[in-house]
Every structure is written in C-alpha cells, then in structure tokens.
Request: fold
Amino acid sequence: MATSHAGENYINHEKGLWSWLTTLDHKRIGIMYMISVMAFFFIGGMFALAIRLELFSVGKTIVEAQTYNQMMTFHGTIMVFMVIVPGLPAVFGNFFLPIMIGAKDVAFPRLNLLSWYLLMLGATIAVSSMFFGGVDTGWTFYTPYSIKGSIGVINMTLGAFIMGMSSILTGLNFIVTVHKLRCPGMTMNRIPLFIWALYSTAIIQVLATPVLGITLLLLVAERVLGVGIFDPALGGDPVLYQHFFWFYSHPAVYIMILPALGVVSELITTYSRKTIFGYKAIAYSSIAIAAVSFFVWGHHLFVSGQSEVAGILFSFITMLVGVPTAIKVFNWVATMYRGSIQLKTPMLYAIGFMFVFTIGGVTGIMLATVGMDVHFHDTYFVVAHFHYVMVGGTLFALMGAIFHWLPKMFGKMHNEAMARLSFVFVFIGFNVTFFPQFILGSLGMPRRYFDYLPEYEPLNRISTMGSWVIALGFIVGLITIIHALLKGKQAPDNPWGSTTLEWQTKSPPVFHNFDSTPSVNGGPYEYR
Amino acid sequence: MSIAKEGEVHHFAHHFDDADHEYESTKQGVWLFMVTEVLMFGALLVGYLIFKGLYPEVFEQGGDTLNWKLGATNTVVLIFSSLTMALGIYYIRIDDRKKALLNLGITLICGFIFLGIKYIEYSHKFHLGIFPGKYFHAEGFMPDAPLYFSFYYMLTGLHGLHVVIGMGLIAWIMIRVARGTYSSSYWTGVEGVGIFWHLVDLVWIYLFPLLYLVG
Amino acid sequence: MLSLLLTSLGHASTFMPPQASTIAPAVDRLYAFLLIISVLASILVIAGMLYFIFKYRRKSETEKSAYITHNHLAEFLWSFIPLVLFIVAFVWGWKVYHDLRFAPENAYEIFVRGQQWSWEFEYQNGHKSPAELYVPVGRPVKLLMTSSDVIHSFFIPSFRVKQDVLPGRYSSIWFEVKEPGEYQIFCTEYCGLQHSSMLAKVVAVPQKDFDMWVSGKAVSNLSPEEQGHKTYIARNCNSCHSIDGSAVVGPTFKGNFGLTRQFEDGGSAVVDENYLRESILDSQKHIVKGYTKVMPTYEGVLEDKEVEALIAFIKSLKN
Reply:
C-alpha cells in the first residue's frame, strides 16, 4: 500500500502538459473532460444567444434564415452530444465514482483516456462540418431532408458516431467499476445515490448507443453509397429512421437526466444534514427509469403516422416513467422534513432544480397524453418542456455539482456570495427565458422557426431578454470558479460535513485517492 | 504495466486486488462490449426483417441471386476458425506456446480465406451492376431489389469490417504470444480476442440463412 | 394563481388559440384538467419544499437532524396517487386521440400536397388552390396529404389538429369548422431554408359559398397584375424573389423585365415573356450568374393563367 508524502496530491503528482495528456488517473481525466465540456458549453451557449437574438423581432434581425438554421443545428448537436451527455458522467462520474466507492481508479484506465480522445476526435469532426457547407438539419438529422442537403451532414453524423463510441466506453467502464471495484463493506445497498444514478446511466449508454451508432452509419452510407433504406425515392422508409433515432435518443434523455437526479440526492442529504428518505426507492427508481426508457421512444412519433395502437401503447408506457420520477421528487422533499437545512449555493441549485424539474415533469405528462400532444407536438411548448428538464434539470445539477465538489477537486473554497449571485441570475433568467415559451407553444408557434407571426413577438422579446440574464449568471459563475482557483482559501477535507467517502480523503485527493483502502460498515448517509 | 519478458510473472494493474480480480473485471468488460456489438447488428437485422416483411418477393429474388455454395463454404471456414481459436486459448493456458501460435495462425488464415471468398462474391456482383441503392443498374430485377442489396452490402460489409478488425487483433496477440507475454498465469488478451472472434462467427451464422437461404 | 385556475375552469381555453373546430373544446377540456392537476402538484411540491427550508433551517452548527429512513405508507401514497392521475390522463388522452384520428364517413375529401416551401390544395373536380384552403363550415372535412420532397407537418392551431406529411405515402387529418373565418396553417416539421415561411390559410365559408367557389363560379374581378401579385404571395415566390430590388435567394423581380441576364454556364438572354415562362416552368435550365440551382420546377404545378398573371405582375415592376 503506497502512502503519499505530505502535500502530495493528484495535481502535483506529475507536472507538465504531457503528463496530463497521457494520464491514466481518473481524476485528471475528469478534469480534462471538465475543461472540454466547459469550452463546448461556451460555443453552444453563444449559438443559443444568437438564436434568441435573431428571434427578438419579426423578420430578419441579425442573420439570414440559412445561418439561423445552421445555428440551431449546431446549438442542439453541441449541447446534446458534447455538453449534456458527457457533462455529469464524464466529468463528475470520472472524478468521483471510484472515490465514492473506495476504489483507486476505474476498471480500465486506458479505455478511460481513449474515451476522452474519442470525444475530442468526434467533436472535431462534427464541428468541421462548418467547412463543408454547414449542417441545417436540426440535431435529429431526419431523413429524407438530411440526405438531400449539404455534405456537411456526413461529418456531423460521423462525429456523433465517434462521440457515441466514447459514451459507450465510459458506460462500460463504469459498470465494471461498480461491479468489481467496490471497497470492503461497500455492498450495492451502500453505494451513494449518485453512483446508483451513474450505474443506471451506464446501462443505458451501453444498451442504447449502439443503435444510434448503426443509425448514423446507415445515414452516412445513405449519403456516400446511395443505400436507400431511409429514402422513400428508393423504396425506403423515412419513419424507420425516426424509430431508430429515438430508440437511442429517448433513452439518451435519461442519460442526460439520471446523473442529475443522483447529484440532487447527494446535495439534498448533505445540506439537510439528514439521511436520505427512502434510499432503496430512489436507487431502484433510477434502474426503473432506465428500464422503462427503452420502451417509450414512440412518443416522439405521435403525429408521424404510426398506428393508433402504437400511439396509445407508447403514451401509456411514457406515463409509467412519471411514477419513479415522482417518487424521487417526493422523497427529496421528505428528506428535508426535520432536517438541518443550510442554503449554500449547491443547495440553492438543488432547490432550483426541484422547482423547474417539477414544472418540466408535469409538462412532460401533458406531452405524454397522446390527444394533447397532437396540439403541442413540434411547437415551442416542447422546446420549453425539454429546456426545463435539460437546462433547468441537468445544467442546474451540473452547476450545483461544481460548487459542491470544487473544494474537493481543487482544494480551494469559492466565494459564497458570488456563487449565490450567479444562482440568482441563472434561476431568474432561466424562467424568464423559457416560461413564455410554454405559452407561445400553446398559442401554436412551431419550433425551428426563423421567423414568426407578429402576434408572437412580445413573448419572444421577453424570452430573449431572459437569455441575457442567464448569460450574466454563467459569467458570474465562471468568474467565481476562476477566482476560487486563483485566490480561493485552502479548503478543509470536509467543508460541508458530508458522510460520503470522497469527503473522508484529502482535498485535493492524493494520487491513489486514499492513503489506505477504506472499509465501510454502514449506509452512505449516516447523519445521526 | 510494461510488456513482460519471457517467463516473467504478469503484474496486474495497481487498482486491482490480484491478477484474478483483474482477469474477471476485464472479462466482464469484454462481454459488455459484445453486448453493444449484438445490439448494433441487432438494429440492422430489425431493419432487414421489417423490409423483408414489406417486400418478401424482392428479398426472395435477392437471396436467389446469391451463391449459397460460396456462403456455405464461408460458414464452414468461420466455424472451423472458431474451433482453432478456442484451441489457441486452450494451449496458451497449458503454456504450450508453439501449438497456440499454430492454432492462432490457422485462425488468421481462415480469416483470409473468408475475405477472399467475399471478394469473389462482391466483384461478381459489381460486374453485374449490382450496387447498393441508387447506383444499382443490373437488369432483370424487381423495382425494389436495390433495397435488398442495400441490406446485403451493409450487413456483410459491417461484418467484413469486423473480420478485418478481428484479424488485426489476432495478429497482435500472436506477436505477444511469440514474445512470451501470455502464459498459464495470464491469458486475458487471448481470451478477449477469442470472445470477439466467436461473436464475429456467430453474426455470420445468422447472416448466412437470412441473406443466402431466404429464397 | 386562483384567477388562472378559474379561467381555465370557466373557459377551458387558457393560452390556447380560438376554438374553431368541433373537436377543440374537447381538447381544451383535457388541457384544463392537465393544467389544474399540474398546478396543484407543483404547488404541493414547491410550497412543501419552501416551508421545510424555512422551518428546518440550520440554527446551530452542531444541530442534529431526525433519523428517518423510510415510511412505507407515505411512499405507497405518493407512488399510487400520481399513478392514478397519470392513468386518468392517459385514458382521457386516448379518447381525444381516437376522436382526432377517425373522420366521420361523410367527410368531404380534399387532397393536400406539401413541397418546399408551400402548400397546395386540390379539390375533387381537379381545381387547385395554392396557399388557401377553402372549406365549408359545419361539414366534416378530411384532408388526404402527401409530400413531393421531404417530410412536412400540417398544423392548424385553432383546430387542434396536426399530422406529418410524408413523401411516398398518404396521411390524413379531419376537422369540422364551427365559424366562418380565416385560420392559420403552419408547417411544423423542419423542412429547410424557408420552413418558417411555409404558411397557408384556411378560409372557412358557408356551404353555399363553398359550392360556388369550388365549381369555379367565383368570378375574379382582379386585374392580371393584381392576380399575379396574389399568386406571387400564394406560391411563396416571395420567399426567394424580392420586389424591392434586394437579392435574396434568387434575383429580384424589380426592374427585371427587359434586362440581359448572364448565366452560370456562360450564356445570356434578354428577360422577356418567353424567358420568364421558361424560368418558372423549367427553372433548372438556366441559372443567373451568382445564384445557385435551388428553385423547384413549376411545370404541372402552376396553371397557365397563373403563369400569365405572374408574368404580367413582373412586367409591372419597373425601376
């Protein structure tokens, strides 16, 4: 058992850029993911602001329709494949999964590094499509439109395919790590809920992503080899593409949200200083959501011409997802009951998460109601719904995770007042941006519109102004993080008084995570 | 973990308890990867079955066009290669490096025979103008025949790519066997490649009847 | 919040477009139900959360919390009650969906063709109407829809109906309009450059007027230039050709007539009636220098009198 020298940690263990680029340490790979995801988020966010600015007024505001369509495609693709999917699992999963189960690393460190390089390669190829005529298909690449436009779509889908491989390898790595590398006493019923969430996510990554892989390969073959499987002109079926695409992409929605649910479980118990209410219900509901998520893809096709029976079945199964989700929300509220609640920034993000996620959830039920979806389908109601879940959900959890784990990852404390200010801007800005979009959707404004009818203008203006407030919130957040890294006070090992394993080692952790292998004799949240 | 010298005991990576722990974990990882492979081919086969249901006559005619004798030969070649692959693993586990190398070599040659036969089949079709989808210009086929051949080329092409990757992996472990990396105390790499090769074989066992015998 | 609830109870149409079809009130009642349980559920969760944050705020650094691991009854209730509500929503949604899908036997059928980026409606007597879907009030209308190129989606918010329009097959939709008037049609499946301009209008008129219109008896008293301007808007020529001199996707119509055009392939021609006719019907033949080959051909799409009206309109646009 290697013991570390005083003051030695994973950051100063080796020096130089090369030692980072060739590292097999899960913590360093997590940091590399963090930097890349933040860079992608910046690019995707710029596109988002430009989209909102264009929609400030009726008609052309800043760009032409062609540019707008490409911007919305890049915004969607970057945010989905490069930010939200790798966001929590690859950044915080990589850094904390081994530590939280008392392991020294993930099962396959080389594969882990390869995943990062694959993400970078895929992202580069996808973004290079800008130089091949751009892509204006939307992130869904629906056929036959996607096989008729510019050749940039080949780069984009090939890039997404490679990023999918990265996602598969990460998932595979996590499953084996959770199965095989738990420390003595860490039974499956004692792993933290964030780990349960990552484990459920990994199952989806491994089982669903291959189908996206083959779908995107077929799309590339469609363009390059003229294969006609999705092309109605050659006897193919464009709706089959939609089935294949959503067979992955709906479970992918849970790849995006499950880790966020896990983070919120961690935050609520830590800052309520109280054991989680219904550990097993929350843990198994993650698995339940993962399992059911494979059988709901058809709710994206309620108006595509699938049979009535299919529509009804998919509507029913989709409703079932609501149950484990509701269990989680109620259990979180119950965890706060008779707790000792401290409103630190991560807790604010967790509260904000529950606020917007509830709205995202109930509007999800509206969309799952098949007769109602006919009106809402492909309108701004859907845009508002998934931003409430993806931004208000995943991104809020991501921000909460950053401020929760920053002291552990870098050994520095952030400025609490500034961090809270960033939350206030993000929370208000978010609701101002996206709530009006529910109303726009109800009124019938379709999505992916470069231009709209004059009667939609006032609400669009409010929405655009909200986007500026969100941007401000993220800028303040970024400054807070940079300030903490440069000028932050030395963090104690366990600043929040948390009981999970990552807080029992040094801040920042030593190279092998723990000076001696920990052993566990109780649940993860023993606040007594 | 550097490449071990001949006769040296394998050192497992630092985050495992012992070599057995590492072996079990790696094997689980390989099997999970196989699951992703099955799902990828599975999705394509679902597409195949949907279109076969829509245009059964087209698929029958397409199946009749293929030379089932060549397909059957390839099936035998691959099944035989799976046997030699299994023998290769067996011999490395009893430290018989020479016989292991011989069997892995035969497996590799089987891979070349398979690709050779595939080359004959492909070039014959290209000669007749049987190309996938919109480049199809052969005479005497039903209007939707290109669709069958789209599936034929996608399925066999993707499978062929896996054969090539499998052969590369076999060549790589042969070098490592020759260098003495593997022994009765450490044979994870050989077994992993073996599992992959069996999967490639298994996929073909499904493709052969679905594509060649459908007529 | 209370007024919101009352409004939705009373009118069952909060934030929804006017209820112009017979099915719209049924959809809106479902919406009101969903909205009310959603608002109640959200209030329950959010208010409970805020109350706990206040009541159980940390008062001292050494404070202990209660150790409560689970409660089977509570957990059963908050799984079971949502499940019941979800099933009610599901069954109700199913009923509405069924009514939305199945047109009455006696429905009047109209063909709809979507193409990048316009709609065309064809009546049983062969009469074609671009961008304006005339329908009779008080009679079920069934639309049989297909696309000439990519996937579109046909959406009339005021009728609460929507259906994807696919190339190579027919899909259908039905509605019965309650009041005469004009209603917006959108394309809701992303279809490329001018997706957001792929608009049309439903014009609902009494049966008598409809019969007259469809049999072509509606006499047009517009001049050829005015008729051409109408066609220019209706056929979405305006999404690519301006009339104010600015270059959009294609050349402007302003001052076009009489110019000598240089082509991408090196040739040239003077813009006259024949050139305009050829450019409309066989649009891919000559491409003006500096532009790309994106315009669809209108052979068989435009009627002769529409082409003539367009030419008259372009001629009238002098510098």
